Structure formats: C-alpha cells, structure tokens
Amino acid sequence: MKHFPHFLTRSRSARSGTTPSGQVDFVGAGPGDPELLTLKALKALETADVVIHDRLVSPEILERARRGALILDAGKEGFGLAMAQAEINALIVQHASRGAHVVRLKSGDATVFGRLDEEIDAVTTASLDYRVVPGITSASAAVATIGQSLTKRTRNASVRFLTGHDMKGFAEHDWAALARTGEVAAIYMGKRSARFIQGRLLMHGANPATPVTIIENASRPDQRVIATTLARLEPDLTDAGLTGPALTLYGLAPRLAEAVDLPLPLKELAQ
Ligand code: SAH
C-alpha cells in the first residue's frame, strides 16, 4: 500500500501524543469570481485558523474565510516581491507548527506559476502535514470568456502555459515551435514582456496576423477583453492601459467578437 507523507506525519504525532502539529492546505482560489471556488477550497477557508494569501486573491473570496481567522497578506508583485519567499515559507511553518490549520491561498491554481514547490519543501522539511486543493487557473477562465477552447481538433493538439518573465528577466521559450501555424499559448505575467514576446515570435517567422487576445481581470466584474493580432499586440496593449492581472491568449481570437465588450477599433480587428 502506498503511503503519502502527510498521512505518515499525522499518524506519527497521534502515536507520540505530542502537541498535534497543524495542517497546511495549499488552496487554489481561482481567478477571482467566488463562484469559481471549489467546494473543497471553500471548506478549507471556512475551517482555517490562518489564511496567508497572495495579492491577486479577491476580497470577495477572503470574506469566505472563517470569522476569527487570521488573514495575512503575502502579496507579491511582478518583478519585486512584497514579501520574500523565505519569509512566506517561515510564516506558514511558524503557524502550522503551533497547531494551526493554515490555508495558503493562491490565485488560480496553486500549481501554476505559484512557487508551490518551494513552500511544500519548507513544510515537509518541518515535518508538517499538507495537501493541495486544485483551483481554476486564469487561462481556463480567460478562454471561457472568449468562447474558445484551449485545444481543438485540426488546430492544436497541445497548449503551452508560458510565463512572460522568470527570475532572470523576460523568459525565453521555444519561439520557433510557437511560431508555427495553429499554436496556442496562455501567457501569464505577459504585460511587461509583450513587446519582447512579439519581437521574438516575429523574428522566428510567426504570422503577424496571428490572433492574440488579452483578458484582464478574467471572471471579475471589471473584466476586459482586448482582441488584437501579433503585429499589433504592441501598441494595442499599451493603449489599453491595463491595471489588473491579464492573461494573454496567443493564437486565439474571441469566437464572437461582438459578444464581448471591446473598444471599437479593436473590435474591428477581431472580426
Ligand atoms: N496561479 C495563477 C497564476 C499566478 S501568476 C493561476 O493559476 O492563474 C500571476 C498571473 O496570473 C498574472 O500576471 C496574470 O497573468 C494571471 N492572472 C491571475 N489572475 C488573473 C485574472 N483574474 N485574469 C487574468 N489573468 C490573471
């Protein structure tokens, strides 16, 4: 029979009769709409002693936390970190070691560009129980908004989740592969790197007319959709003046451009 680490640590503390160690739940909060929380995520929030959340977790979701739960903002922002990863790790371990049920709440799905592994390592090093509660990643919410699917028979048999930047700056990818006709990619953290990505793809022979759709604040009341092409990604992105989190769907246009709220000149492009 296969044992998982958290079951092992749980039975160990139960046997030894020592102070019960806490539990850490790494929970995906989804893209923002509270109705896109899973029931498991909601249950975790309702029983949490401590909630440590990222900047992108919406207030409507934090309201679902148990009254009396300690809510801590570990808000991270783009290139600079509001709280260093080591501090977040220490915070999780500190509370769980005192026996607290800690919910580490991350936007979207915790396993997508969420530094989950670093936090799991910290938790397992401290011999604490943990589990991962999956959430709806922003690519899923974004593509649902435009009535498209991430994969489609005859168009693309695979889809890539890319980050616009990594620890070294703008992230490099297999641009030649992405430049091929029909490729689809969901680009996270792609606002500041848009010009770089555009340049790389065009340099590797991508069709300038390839559709690109940016979804800002996907699933939230202030959601916006900007439909453009690879050739016009910049300047259209800058012109749109986005302030919220945005997901860039490369290779996809809204199915019904008229069904979404597009600025007029961009709407024409999307048709
Ligand atoms: N774990 C998250 C991603 C974290 S990285 C997930 O699965 O969605 C942060 C990036 O996610 C943002 O820069 C943005 O590209 C994207 N993002 C998160 N929430 C979003 C939302 N509501 N709408 C659009 N993009 C979002």
Number of strands: 12
The CATH topology annotation of the largest domain reads as Methyltransferase, Cobalt-precorrin-4 Transmethylase, Domain 2
Beta fraction: 15-25%
Helix content: 25-40%
Summarize the structure.
The chain has 2 domains: 9-133, Tetrapyrrole methylase, N-terminal domain (Cobalt-precorrin-4 Transmethylase, domain 1, 3-Layer(aba) Sandwich); 138-269, Tetrapyrrole methylase, C-terminal domain (Methyltransferase, Cobalt-precorrin-4 Transmethylase, Domain 2), CATH 3.30.950.10.
Secondary-structure blueprint of this entry?
Elements: H1 5-16, E1 23-28, H2 39-46, E2 50-53, H3 59-62, E3 70-73, H4 85-97, E4 101-106, H5 116-125, E5 129-133, H6 138-145, E6 160-163, E7 165-166, E8 169-170, H7 175-178, E9 185-188, H8 194-203, E10 211-216, E11 224-229, H9 233-240, E12 246-250, H10 264-270
Parallel strand pairs: 1-4, 1-5, 2-3, 2-4, 6-9
Antiparallel strand pairs: 7-8, 9-12, 10-11, 10-12
Helix pairs in contact: 4-5
Question: What does this protein structure show overall?
Answer:
This protein has helices at residues 5-16, 39-46, 59-62, 85-97, 116-125, 138-145, 175-178, 194-203, 233-240, 264-270, and strands at 23-28, 50-53, 70-73, 101-106, 129-133, 160-163, 165-166, 169-170, 185-188, 211-216, 224-229, 246-250. It is an alpha/beta fold and 271 residues long. It folds into two domains: 9-133, Tetrapyrrole methylase, N-terminal domain (Cobalt-precorrin-4 Transmethylase, domain 1), CATH 3.40.1010.10; 138-269, Tetrapyrrole methylase, C-terminal domain (Methyltransferase, Cobalt-precorrin-4 Transmethylase, Domain 2, 2-Layer Sandwich), CATH 3.30.950.10. The longest helix has 13 residues, at 85-97. It is elongated. Mean pLDDT is 88; it is low at 1-17 and 267-271.
